[in-house]
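WARN  no MSA supplied for this record, continuing single-sequence
INFO  ligand: protoporphyrin IX containing FE
INFO  echoing inputs
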Amino acid sequence: MGPKPILVLKKFDDISIFLNQNSERNLTKISKHWAGEAILNNKHVEWKKSRKLINPAFSSQMIEKYFDVFNKRSFALVDKLKLYADTGKEVDIHKYLLNSNIEGLIENLTGAPIRTSEKEVDDFGVALKDVLHGVARGITSPWLYSDTIYSVYLKLTGNMKLIKELNYLPAKIVRENLKDANEKYRSETADSSKCLIDLMVKAQQKDSTFTETRLEHEFLQLMSAGTDASALNASFTLLMLAIHQDVQQKVYEEITQLVGEHDAFTSDHLSNHLKYLEQCIRETLRMYDPVAVTIRESQKEHVLKDNTIIPAGMYILIMIHLANNDSAMYENPHKWNPENFSEQAIAGRPKRSQLSFSVGPRSCPASNYAILSIKLQIAQIIRHYHVSTCIKELKPDDLKMEIGIRSKLGYPIRLTLRKKTRT
Ligand code: HEM
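INFO  complex generated
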């Protein structure tokens, strides 16, 4: 047994009440070994400082600036996938989406063209997948909650090399870019829309707790939190579109009615249009949550809707995935149905009852960034390729739960170029 009692919350009402009042994620013991101490696992004052540093990088004003990179990356992705087009072979799409997300995020957060090799991106992606597996094991194994036992466990299981691999790329990027940004910063007047690296320079000048190591960890934790979750959602969405051909056709028509074959997507296209595609993405988030579980420590006594009292000092496992698949909320929760996210269906449920980005002070700061970048990635792929798959349906046994839901079958997609004239 673990050192503290654990309570599991799986209903929207309970989760919502609790998360809105409680900001202590209590991941510190587990994740500091992998990724230092920064936004994901910081507590109290230090977490507030991390959040203040990071929030502006995901404001609507900044996201507007990221569209060039989103477009550039998605065209590059379509080009890479040409290798598999019209071959009849299936490609596991997850790795391509993940690498594209990593490259895009680096460019957006540094505000500069990427100076990272494909191999470095590949290595980070592989290490991240293994680390997420390790962190999930830590969260769901109460006997590992002790700091000392967890350190010994990591050493005995040979994880130290993996930790080094995960930390290498973000540390390199921050070191290189901070140096450049320091010079740039001195020569610039105030500008409210700076990239994250510029904000880091500013933070360093005002607050000595923002050491270079801490900033490397902030960057690493952003890269870890965002890239795989978005890639998982885009992979599952493409798989669903490949299985549900009628839905794919509707999505394709929605895209082609809006943009030409070579047009870049604008923020207006993505924010105010392509609503049906967004329904598909949100329904996929609900059924295959990229962050299916999170953990808190109750800081004070909490009273739930049915008057259940949660005492201070308990560990709370928040089962986001179970709440999102509750039959009290969705008529047929285990059937993939984009109509669950029509305007009318959303209006019939409590506000913010779709918990994929969580709620409360520690909810995802980049939900908007995630949705827009995934929408663009999928719209770009579907306007160029027809997708199909050997998988007829994803059954519960085909899935596994780590931090997020993953497919044991991978994400095999067959690509057929829609317009043969395009190169
Ligand atoms: C589909 C994509 C994504 C999903 C489903 C997702 C989901 C979540 C969830 C559920 C949480 C809160 C967990 C909790 O309450 O304990 C969270 C937090 C977080 N997410 Fe996301 N996320 C996604 C993409 C991103 C992206 C693209 C980034 C950044 C590049 C990002 C950065 C973060 C950070 C930094 C936190 C921690 C916030 C804090 O502790 O204050 N996420 N995310």
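The chain is about 55% helix and 10% strand.
INFO  checksum written, moving to next record
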